[in-house]
Amino acid sequence: MPLAVTVTGDGPPVLLVHAMAADAGVLAPVAQALAADRTAITYDRRGYGASGAPSPYGGTTVEEQAEDAAAVLAAAGDGPAVVAGIGFGALVALDLLRRHRGLVRAVALADPPLFQLVPEATEDLAGTFGRLEEAVRTGGPEAGVEAWLGSDADAEELARARAAHRAFFADWAGLSSWPATRPELRRLDGPAVVVTGPGTPAPVLAAADRLAALLPRSRRATDGDLAGAARSLL
Fold first, then answer.
1. Overall domain count for the chain
2. Which residues of the chain fall below pLDDT 50?
3. pTM of the model as a whole
4. How many Cα atoms sit within 13 Å of 128 on the Cβ side?
5. Of 179, 210, 171, nearest to 194 (Cα)?
6. Helix residue ranges per DSSP H, 83-121
7. Residue 9, Cα to own-chain centre: how many angstroms?
């Protein structure tokens, strides 16, 4: 799968993995903040931005996305990296730590949607699904992406996300695909920072707290600063 990769800066490597309905451009400010003394690696996940996608592309899994990320790291060839992911990207980072430990020095996990740790999130997820379903019914898949991002989304980022609606719904299908159990999470021995911010939704905040309690070498950060979290791990 052809993936569009950008490498900036010089120093220890940091791989940045974007969320759903986003692309590497959203992480450009984080990459710029790191590039002064780090090598910041960003890429468009399959189906987003300038990266390719299977045809048809109706679904993906966290593990499939982690294989793409592992290929990006292997091609970079700069040794173990800090992997910093947002949302779905945080799950990718965790799976890299679980299955590709030799490529990963540490992980920074922003807004991890590990809803299997939050049974009470079921009602909230059902409401989100209902909003997406109604938006798609009335305005097509692009409208579903817009409903996910909300009315305050940046216009340029929204346009790119709408164009990548197939990738968004593939991600949506794979959001609950990660099979890791609580005992497996307790065995992940890499250093980790679990990051949330003032705008983190309540179910994701609960997932972040529970994930941080399970990971044996983790700490919590509540300032929403992914670049700072990644920097602290090097």
1. 1
2. none
3. 0.97
4. 13
5. 210
6. 88-99
7. 22
